[in-house]
């Protein structure tokens, strides 16, 4: 596939992943793990695409858009880092390190979108005064989405045109300890995602469950999915216990 | 006496940013909401108390009751996050003896006659006068919407704003 | 309840538009206002079919500042429809509707952000990652579950809101059901995050030294693992946690600190 095509597809994927049409649909289309799968298909290496996508996704599991603010943008991170990594055959950890700065930039892209939406908001005021419901639909959904397409497509398209080459050149010239360092960082960075979730759950009395999960893997060597299955059982027990309490009270 | 972790002005009172970010980062276990209209609306008051996140106690006071409560026992025990809906409310409590060391302005919405001063946060002339007065009295006033975004000191921001 | 004007299909239409548009025109000035207005518009037309002025007024009323979590918050769309219907009969004024909307949006956002976005999303995408990290496309099952769940729950809460009016909210929140769900989801989330961090936070040290007496090489990592397996991983997670709770949440600074530490540690061969 040509670099140009990759850039076009990436721009479209980023737009679809962040268009926010459908309150929860973007959470699927914009999830790095999903994007990893799509890129895996495009580059003929689904397994690797999934692994890189999921590794990036770990960082963004706990991100909540409170008050409409996007603190960091996993979709932008994925739409740039995954195609670069798959083209150059980078290791997973380096791909994660490349992803992170773009995740931060994504919050600025969203600020541009929300600022541009002011135009359509004020147009909607005019339509409301005229009692024109079709106009309101257009201002609420159609116009912002068209604007968002350009805001989302252009930066990702541009970066992908040159991204892989630039990273290749950079990696060629950087001394070995820096490239090792970048890969080390990629191993540590997912810890941010976990720390964010521990904090957003924020209940010290429940923290032992985190350690149970951690050491179940370390000492007992059980898989992550097995841990999730036991977790579902414990959660079900808690709900059952509390609902019985509620029925008696 | 309660340990006051954060005093915030936010026209939305308790919402996602407060529940998901500020309570966690300040590790508070009690929210004191000081707002006359909420305190007098039994239905809304009960919704606020029911919607308290697990492990967090929500108390709703009118301004007068809040001052009384503060003078009697400084809001009791716990790590407390205090919420005001508007600048005049906070100013009135401050004037009547509620101790404010730091005052965070987290959200004040747009309305005709109000000026955007920092991010989406707006002030009008009387807000600005009251905040300036509090600041001169030694209160650290600052703008901060969510912890992941940067904050800004009131003094710095107001250098560029004219009413 | 007296005779209701809107059919279930019409309430569902309001929810569908809300679901589609909730975040598309989110601006700093009034956030979800246009989306809320768009969700209401068609049914407002029916409610005020003989009164053009009241219709325009209602559209403008719902273009005022509004922001909440959209899944549980769909209940407010239903409540607003029920209240507009009462207003058309002359039973209440527009201020009351705005007051209820503004009052409910905060507490509902608090619960919705926690339960839906903080937990359900983390859990379902966490499961997706669990499979994907093994290279298995089974991962793709989980993210759509989240999207569909938001639609189904939203449709339910929206209908409940229309049926019960503002009483729907105490019903949704009552008797600690929400808190039980949040606690149970927290437990599941923490267990999964513990397991995932054990596998996918990668920190280890290549430091080693040779015993002068026997000539045997001893690796530091092996010794650390003997004391407490995964010690460095836990140190990374809780070091960052400590940073967040004590040093503020400057994400950019944190990322660059981690990069700097990694590169320096790689230079001295401490980590690798």
Automatic annotation (TrEMBL), chain A:
Keywords carried by this UniProt record: Cell membrane, Membrane, Phosphotransferase system, Sugar transport, Transmembrane, Transmembrane helix, Transport
GO cellular component: plasma membrane
Bilayer topology: Multi-pass membrane protein
Keyword Mitochondrion: no
Signal peptide bounds: none
Classification via InterPro entries: GatZ_KbaZ_carbometab, PTS_IIC_man
Transmembrane intervals: 34-60, 140-162, 174-197, 209-240
Highest taxon, organism lineage: Bacteria
Pfam family, one: EII-Sor
Subcellular location: Cell membrane
Keyword Transmembrane: yes
Example GO biological process: phosphoenolpyruvate-dependent sugar phosphotransferase system
Protein name: D-glucosaminate-specific PTS system IIC component
From TrEMBL, chain C:
Swiss-Prot/TrEMBL keywords: Cell membrane, Membrane, Phosphotransferase system, Sugar transport, Transmembrane, Transmembrane helix, Transport
GO biological process: phosphoenolpyruvate-dependent sugar phosphotransferase system
Keyword Transmembrane helix: yes
Domain of life, source organism: Bacteria
Keyword Membrane: yes
Gene Ontology cellular component list: plasma membrane
Span of the signal peptide: none
Membrane topology label: Multi-pass membrane protein
Subcellular location: Cell membrane
TM region(s), chain numbering: 139-158, 179-201, 226-244, 251-271
Name of the featured protein: PTS system mannose/fructose/sorbose family transporter subunit IID
């Amino acid at each position: 596939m040509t670099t140009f095509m990759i850039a076009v597809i990436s721009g479209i994927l980023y737009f679809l992943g962040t268009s926010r049409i459908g309150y929860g649909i973007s959470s699927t289309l914009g999830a790095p793990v999903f994007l990893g799968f799509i890129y895996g298909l495009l580059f003929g290496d689904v397994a690797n695409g999934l692994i890189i996508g999921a590794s990036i996704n770990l960082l963004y599991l706990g991100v909540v858009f409170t008050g409409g603010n996007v603190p960091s943008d996993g979709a932008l991170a994925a739409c740039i880092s995954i195609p670069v990594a798959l083209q150059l055959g980078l290791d997973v950890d380096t791909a994660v390190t490349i992803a992170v700065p773009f995740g931060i930039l994504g919050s600025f892209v969203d600020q541009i979108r929300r600022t541009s939406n002011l135009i359509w908001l004020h147009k909607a005021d005019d339509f409301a005064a005229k009692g024109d419901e079709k106009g309101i639909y257009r201002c609420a959904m159609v116009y912002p989405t068209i604007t968002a397409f350009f805001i989302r497509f252009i930066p990702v398209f541009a970066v992908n045109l040159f991204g892989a080459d630039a990273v290749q050149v950079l990696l060629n010239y950087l001394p070995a300890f820096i490239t090792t360092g970048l890969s080390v960082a990629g191993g540590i960075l997912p810890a941010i995602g976990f720390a964010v979730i521990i904090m957003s759950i924020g209940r010290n009395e429940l923290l032992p469950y985190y350690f149970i999960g951690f050491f179940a893997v370390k000492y007992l060597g059980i898989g992550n999915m097995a841990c999730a299955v036991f977790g579902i059982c414990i959660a079900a027990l808690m709900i059952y216990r509390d609902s019985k309490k509620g029925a008696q009270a | 006496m309660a340990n006051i972790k954060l005093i915030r002005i936010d026209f939305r009172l308790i919402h996602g940013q407060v529940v998901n970010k500020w309570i966690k980062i300040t590790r508070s276990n009690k929210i004191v909401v000081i707002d006359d209209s909420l305190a007098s609306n039994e239905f809304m008051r009960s919704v606020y108390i029911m919607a308290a996140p697990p492990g967090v106690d929500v108390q709703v006071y009118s301004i007068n009751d809040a001052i009384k409560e503060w003078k009697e026992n400084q809001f009791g025990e716990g790590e407390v996050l205090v919420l005001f809906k508007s600048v005049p409310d906070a100013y009135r409590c401050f004037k009547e003896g509620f101790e404010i060391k730091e005052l965070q302005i987290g959200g004040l919405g747009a309305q005709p006659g109000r000026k955007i001063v920092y991010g989406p946060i707006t002030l009008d002339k009387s807000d600005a006068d009251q905040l300036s007065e509090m600041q001169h009295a030694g209160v650290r006033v600052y703008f901060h919407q969510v912890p992941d975004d940067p904050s800004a000191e009131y003094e710095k921001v107001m250098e560029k704003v004219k009413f | 309840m007296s005779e209701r004007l809107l059919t279930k299909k019409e309430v569902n239409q309001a929810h569908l538009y809300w679901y589609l548009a909730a975040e598309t025109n989110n601006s700093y000035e009034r956030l979800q206002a246009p989306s809320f207005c768009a969700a209401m518009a068609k049914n407002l037309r029916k409610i005020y079919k003989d009164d053009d002025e009241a219709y325009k007024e209602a559209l403008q009323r719902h273009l005022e500042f509004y922001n909440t979590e959209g899944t549980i918050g769909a209940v407010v769309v239903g409540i607003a429809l029920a209240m507009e219907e009462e207003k058309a009969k002359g039973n209440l004024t527009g201020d009351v509707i705005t007051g209820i909307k503004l009052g409910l949006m905060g507490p509902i956002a608090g619960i919705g952000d926690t339960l839906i976005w903080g937990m359900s999303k983390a859990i379902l995408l966490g499961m997706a990652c669990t499979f994907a990290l093994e290279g298995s496309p089974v991962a793709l099952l989980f993210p759509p579950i989240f999207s569909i769940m938001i639609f189904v729950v939203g449709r339910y809460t929206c209908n409940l809101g229309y049926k019960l009016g503002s009483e729907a909210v105490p019903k949704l929140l009552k008797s600690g059901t929400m808190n039980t769900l949040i606690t149970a989801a927290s437990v599941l989330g923490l267990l999964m995050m513990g397991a995932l961090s054990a596998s996918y936070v990668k920190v280890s040290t290549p430091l080693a030294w040779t015993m002068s007496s026997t000539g045997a090489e001893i690796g530091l990592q092996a010794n650390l693992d003997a004391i407490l397996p995964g010690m460095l991983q836990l140190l990374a997670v809780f070091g960052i946690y400590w940073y967040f709770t004590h040093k503020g949440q400057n994400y950019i600074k944190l990322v660059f600190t981690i990069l700097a530490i990694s590169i320096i540690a790689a230079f001295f061969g401490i980590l690798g």
